[in-house]
Amino acid sequence: MAERGGTAARPPLPADRYPWFRRMQSLERGIVAGEKTVCAVALLVMALTTVASVVVRNLGLALPNYSEIGLAALVPLTLIGGALCTYLGSHISVEIVHALGSPLLRRAAAAITAVGVLAFAAIYFRSGWILMQEFRLTGDKLLDLGTPLWPLAALFPVGMALMAFHVVLQVIAMAIGPDNRGVAP
């Protein structure tokens, strides 16, 4: 280790050697902020449409069933929320990995989990893409308000792509070193 002015120079942290990775993490933080916003808005829409539906039903108002909008809001909450859970590490499989004792065993389990999540995301990306195309072709809609289904189905590939993005960055962070998210792999 080189000495400067009588003190030892700090060896570069693994991530310091990879500025592109820091930029990717910054991009990921921006995406996560967007995911949180989408989930919060979806929850708010679900709550408001549920209240509106109860009020309309109990007062006997001649208004359409707005709970369909709340049902539609469940789709982004589920799919974008799943990607957010991947980033936050709050899936069941991740909890199991953290419970393992040995760091080597945790790393191996984390790698296996990453492969599983990537496979899941790839399968549902493809399935969602096909579903979206079919809904666009057929023009399928929900019954009460005529909400088109293809934009909701489009959230399948979007959510799965976000999930895969988070997992790939986690794998890179694991490969670079334990200091990249403040958590040892």
What does this structure look like?
The protein has 185 residues and is an all-alpha fold. The protein has one domain. It contains 5 helices and 2 strands. α2 runs parallel beside α5, α3 packs antiparallel against α4 and α4 runs antiparallel to α5. The protein is elongated and about 65 Å long. The N terminus is likely disordered.
Throw out a few tags for this protein.
single chain; 185 residues; mainly alpha; two-stranded antiparallel sheet; 2% strand; elongated; disordered N terminus; membrane; cell inner membrane; transmembrane transporter activity
Q: Structural class from helices and strands?
A: mainly alpha
Give average pLDDT, whole number: 85
- As a percent range, the share of helical residues equals over 70%
Regions with little confidence, pLDDT below 50 for 5+ residues: 1-6
**What strand line-up does the widest sheet have?**
1-2
Spell the H/E element sequence. Answer: EEHHHHH
SS strand fraction: under 5%
Biggest beta sheet attributes: 2 strands, antiparallel
Number of domains: 1
- Round the Cα radius of gyration to an integer and report it: 22 Å
Q: Rough shape?
A: elongated
CA-CA gap between termini: 26 Å
Q: How many helical elements?
A: 5
Q: How many strands in all?
A: 2
GO biological process, one term: C4-dicarboxylate transport
Protein name: TRAP transporter small permease protein
InterPro entries: DctQ (IPR055348), TRAP_DctQ (IPR007387)
Subunit structure: The complex comprises the extracytoplasmic solute receptor protein and the two transmembrane proteins.
